[in-house]
Amino acid sequence: MSSFAPTSSDSANSGASYADFDKDDAVFFKGIEKIPYKPDAGPSESLVYKHYNPSQVVRGKTMEEWLRFSVCFWHTFRGTGADPFGFPTLVRPWDDGSNTMENARRRLRAGFEFFQKLGVKYWTFHDRDVAPEGSNLSESNQNLDKIVELAQELQAKTGVKLLWATCNLFAHPRYMNGASTNPDAHVFAYAAAQVKKGLDVALKLGAENFVFWGGREGFHSLLNTNVRAELDHMATFFRLAIAYKKKIGFNGVFLIEPKPKEPTKHQYDYDAMTVIAFLRTYGLEKEIKLNIEPNHTTLAGHSYEHDVVMASAYNMLGSVDSNTGSPDLGWDTDQFPMDVKNATLLMKVLLRQGGLQPGGLNFDCKVRRESTDLKDMFISHIGAMDTFARALKCAAKIFDEEVISKQVEERYKTFQSGIGAKIESGDTTLEELEEYVLQNGEPSQISGQQEHFENMLNYYL
Ligand code: XLS
Ligand code: NI
Ligand code: NI
C-alpha cells in the first residue's frame, strides 16, 4: 500500500471494519442483488442484462454454453488502480492491503459473492493472486494449500468452476531474466517447482485448462542472449509439465497465451502463428493449444480478431482472454470489451468451430483507475457480457443466412474443378501449370469486393 490512502466514494459499506468481513455471513457487495435479465431496460439502468439471457438458445446451445464467461481474480480482486505514475485509487472495504492470510481469505470470499451475483460460472487465477508468497517455496506452498481448501469449499457451495489456473512466473525478482528461459538453471528449477504445485492445485480444483503466459520469456538485448538455448529450454519446460500432468492424471488442456512484448521487449510467444510454429518445431502441437488475448494481438500489429482466426484455422484455439486495448496506444490496457463489431468478428469464429469448450471467454480486464465504485466492478462485466451476447446474436444471424460465407466460398470456386482441383489435391506439376497458362493466357480480373463485404457485415450489426 502507498502512504496515500484514498477514501472510497462508495457509501454502502461505510462504517464497516475489516473484521466485519471475516464473519461467515458477511456481505461484501451490499445493496447489489443477483443481476437480472431485463431486455426492456433503459440506457442508464446499469445493473441489469439487456442482452445476456443465459438460458436463451442460439443455434442449438444456450448463451451460457456458447459464452462460458469467466472472471479473473488478479485484476478484479487484486487490482489497486496504481499505475507507473500514480498511487492506488481503488478502495475495497474488505481489503486492508496486507499480505496476510486473513486478507487473502476475505478477498476470495468477496470474489465468490461477486461471481454469483454476476451469474458467471467460471473464474481464473494465478497462484500468487490468491495466496501470499512465503519466504521460501515450502511456505508459499503451505499458504496456497490453505487457500485452495477455502476455494474448494466455495466452489462446492456456489457451483462456480475453475476455467483455468496459472502460475505467476513473472512478478517475483527471481524471474527478472525469465523463468523457463532464464540463463540460470536454478531459476528454471524454481519455475518448474512452482508449476508442479500449480498443476497439483489445478487438479484439486478441477481446472478445465491450465495457462502459460511468458511475460519474461524473451529478451531485452540479443547481445547477452542465446536464443536457441532459451527456446530449447522452454520446450523442455513444457515437456516436463506435460509428463507431470499425465502422471497425476490432470486432464485440463494446456494453453500458451501469446504476447509480443510488455513487460519484455521481445517475447518468444509473439503471436499465434509464432507459437504454433514453436509447438510444431518441438513436437508439442498435440499437447498444447492457444489462449488468445486480442489486446495482445493488436500489440503484435494485427487486427483485433486476427489471432483468433489464425489459431482456429489450425484447430489450435483453446480459449480467449476477452479484453481489449486502445488501438491508439501501444500497450496492454486490459479494457473491458465493449465493441459489438469486434465481438461479432470473434463470435463468428467461435460459432464456426462449434464453441470454445473446455475453454471460455475470460475477462482479463480491469476497470479504469478512475472507476472507483464497487458498482463499477459489476457494470464493467455486465457491459462486456451484453456486448458478447449481442455479438452472438449477430453472428448467429450471419451463420443462419449464409450470405457472407457463400460469397467467400464463391471466391474460391476455381479450385473445385479442372486445373484448380488438381492444385487443391496437390496432384500437378510446374510443367502442367505452365502448359495451362500457355493455353489459357492471362487470368481475367476478379474484384475482391472488400467494401461489399464490409457493408454486408454492417447489415448484421
Ligand atoms: C498479461 C496476460 C496475463 C495472462 C495470465 O498480459 O494477459 O494476465 O493472461 O498470466
Ligand atoms: Ni491474458
Ligand atoms: Ni494481457
From TrEMBL:
Reaction catalysis annotation: alpha-D-xylose = alpha-D-xylulofuranose
Alphabetically ordered keywords of this record: Carbohydrate metabolism, Isomerase, Metal-binding, Xylose metabolism
Example of a GO MF term: isomerase activity
Enzyme Commission number(s) from the entry: 5.3.1.5
Record carries keyword Chloroplast: no
Keyword check for Nucleotidyltransferase: no
Domain of life: Eukaryota
HAMAP family: Xylose_isom_A (MF_00455)
Family: Belongs to the xylose isomerase family.
Name of the protein in question: Xylose isomerase
Name of the encoding gene: LOC101860218
